[in-house]
């Protein structure tokens, strides 16, 4: 086979790989849409840590983010990025409700303890 | 026993969304098609081996690099370094409220590569240690009546001190800094101390080997930022500012030993930073738990895990490059393996730059808002100063949409890939007189570039944590 033929074969191979990749991955709907969080999520804080690990909430842009924090310690709950901070008393609870206007991945922390309690994902 | 790893992100309260699958697929497909197309349309004589530098006429250019101007740049840079150290040592321990961390790790560390590509080696003018070194050298010459004498710098050592130093700078931020087990990273006090120690070390090395010699090969920031400046068209030669053919400056960069290690360290450290919350997360956690089970303390286990993986990433990137070089060495008419190894190292500079843009573009845009608002007005983060009336301003996270970030990320990787291929093809035509053999050798570099670009895309597409 001369070198032009080798190139033609290789080129065809690359195009086929590319097309297959495109089709396979395009059908794999893994961009997170359709998997948004519904209702009000309650995050329970025990001994200053979130029960069941860091809560995961996912919304599409402009949906209403709603969650509640029940805490056995007194601290400030800080929703980073959106920069919303609310105090919570030991044994008390605090509610958050705000529109998801900023795209990205954000965290909420118990600010005094630097303990992450929530990861908020906002898809476009 | 199982622990969750503390998540390392020092500053910004927002992380990028992973690049969606459809965009990943499109970008990867374009990379493959462009790469193959590049092979068939290649030019036959080298175009970038001569830089065709010519001086810029006009008084303004001369004033810009005149001695008085250099003294001003030096004073500004020494003041800023001194202030960053002061803020680090005396300011708040909250990383996001202290001037030092953002200034050194975002404004300088991420800003100068961009400045260097577009404006030339500006760090050379704004290098505080070079300014102090030159001032001491000048004073010594005036007092002693002779120029200071220096040790001969060992040629084999080349840029290795800078390569190792580059890994150390990144290690301090993303390994050491994240070890506190808290969601905020490196403490400003540690940054201040590190900058102080680095200043002492650098000035000592300059005294030993000479200011210019150390800046050429050993001083981390000079070598690292200088590397990126080779892609651009502005350059100072023989004390005059001029322009050269874009990319041509890169072709002579890797002639010093250890240069390949510098560019590989850059790609590896960016990759590791991008992978630790995503692609490497499970492997990191497994290793971490093994180490903890073996009786190592939490902080040490964390640091050890990250250090091992950072070094493995360096080894992996180096291996991919060396396999490509090994392959090229088998093509008839090839120069020696050693010559090929250094001869193609510069083709990775655009890839390293693309990785930087892809991984840090959004962080830079957001954190620079902090740099020029509250960090400027209240640099120590005490809440008691408001120098410019902007202490209460914050970061507007609406400034970039997720889509804008994705396109910049993917676009930079694709453009970096094309430029890397261009440089590699050009070098091949210089090394192989025969055009066919040159093309054959480039199947290997093409595979290397596709591997790096697709790995970069993959890192962006894996969910962060």
Radius of gyration of chain A: 23 Å
- Give helix and strand order of chain A, one letter per element, not per position: HEEEEEEEEE
β-strand number of chain A: 9
Shape of chain A: elongated
Rounded to the nearest angstrom, the radius of gyration of chain B is 23 Å
Helix content of chain A: 10-25%
CATH class type of the largest domain in chain A: Mainly Beta
User: Please, what is the CATH homologous superfamily of the largest domain in chain A?
Assistant: Cupredoxins -  blue copper proteins
Give the termini separation of chain B. 20 Å
Let me know the average pLDDT of chain A: 84
- Beta-strand content of chain B: under 5%
Largest sheet of chain B: 3 strands, antiparallel
Give the domain tally of chain B.
1
Task: Briefly characterize the structure.
The complex is a heterodimer of chains A (124) and B (465). Chain A is built from one helix and nine strands.
């Amino acid at each position: 086979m001369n070198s032009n033929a080798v190139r033609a074969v290789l080129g065809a191979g690359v195009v086929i790989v590319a097309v297959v990749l495109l089709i396979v991955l395009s059908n794999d709907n893994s961009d997170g849409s359709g998997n948004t969080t519904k209702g009000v999520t309650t995050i329970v804080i025990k001994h200053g840590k979130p029960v069941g690990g860091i809560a995961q909430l996912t919304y599409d842009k402009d949906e209403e983010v709603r969650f509640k924090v029940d805490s056995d310690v007194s601290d400030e709950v800080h929703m980073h990025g959106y920069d919303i901070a609310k105090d919570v008393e030991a044994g008390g609870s605090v509610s958050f409700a705000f529109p998801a206007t900023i795209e990205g991945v954000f965290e909420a922390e118990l600010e005094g303890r630097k303990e992450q309690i929530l990861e908020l994902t906002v898809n476009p | 026993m199982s622990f969750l790893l503390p998540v390392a992100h020092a500053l910004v309260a927002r992380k990028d969304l992973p690049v969606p699958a459809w965009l990943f697929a499109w970008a990867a497909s374009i990379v493959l098609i462009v790469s193959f197309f590049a092979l068939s349309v290649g030019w036959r004589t080298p175009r970038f081996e001569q830089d065709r530098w010519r001086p810029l006429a006009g008084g303004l250019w001369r004033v810009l690099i005149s001695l008085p101007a250099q003294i001003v740049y030096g004073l500004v840079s020494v003041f800023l370094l001194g202030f960053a150290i002061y803020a680090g040592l005396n300011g708040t321990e909250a990383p996001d409220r202290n001037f030092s961390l953002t200034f050194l790790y975002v404004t300088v560390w991420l800003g100068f590569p961009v400045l260097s590509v577009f404006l030339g080696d500006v760090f050379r003018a704004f290098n505080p240690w070079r300014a102090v070194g030159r001032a001491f050298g000048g004073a010594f010459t005036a007092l002693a009546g002779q120029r200071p004498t220096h040790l001969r710098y060992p040629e084999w050592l080349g840029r290795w001190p800078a390569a190792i130093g580059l890994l150390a700078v990144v290690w301090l931020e993303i390994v050491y800094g994240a070890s506190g087990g808290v969601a905020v990273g490196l403490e400003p006090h540690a940054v201040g101390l590190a900058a102080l120690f680095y200043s002492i070390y650098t000035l000592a090395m300059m005294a030993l080997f000479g200011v210019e010699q150390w800046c050429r090969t050993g001083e981390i920031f000079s070598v690292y930022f200088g590397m990126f400046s080779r892609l651009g068209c502005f350059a100072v030669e023989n004390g005059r500012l001029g322009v050269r053919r874009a990319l041509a400056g890169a072709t002579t960069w890797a002639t010093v030993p250890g240069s390949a290690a510098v560019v590989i360290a850059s790609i590896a450290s960016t990759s590791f930073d991008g992978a630790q919350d995503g692609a490497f997360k499970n492997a990191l956690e497994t290793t971490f738990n093994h180490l903890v089970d073996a009786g190592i303390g939490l902080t040490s286990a964390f640091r050890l895990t990250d250090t091992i993986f950072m070094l493995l990433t360096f080894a992996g990137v180096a291996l991919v490059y060396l396999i490509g070089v090994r392959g090229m060495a088998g093509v008839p008419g090839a120069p020696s393996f050693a010559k090929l190894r250094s001869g193609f190292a510069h083709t990775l500079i655009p890839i390293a730059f693309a990785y930087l843009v892809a991984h840090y573009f959004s962080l830079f845009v957001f954190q620079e808002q902090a740099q020029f608002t509250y960090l400027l007005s209240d640099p120590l983060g005490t809440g008691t100063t408001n120098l410019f009336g902007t202490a209460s301003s914050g970061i507007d996270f609406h400034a970039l949409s997720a889509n804008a970030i994705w396109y910049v990320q993917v676009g930079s990787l694709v453009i970096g890939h094309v430029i890397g291929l261009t440089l590699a093809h050009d070098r091949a035509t210089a090394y192989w007189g025969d055009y066919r053999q040159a093309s054959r050798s480039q199947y290997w570099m093409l595979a290397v570039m596709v591997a790096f670009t697709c790995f970069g895309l993959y890192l962006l597409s894996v969910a962060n944590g």
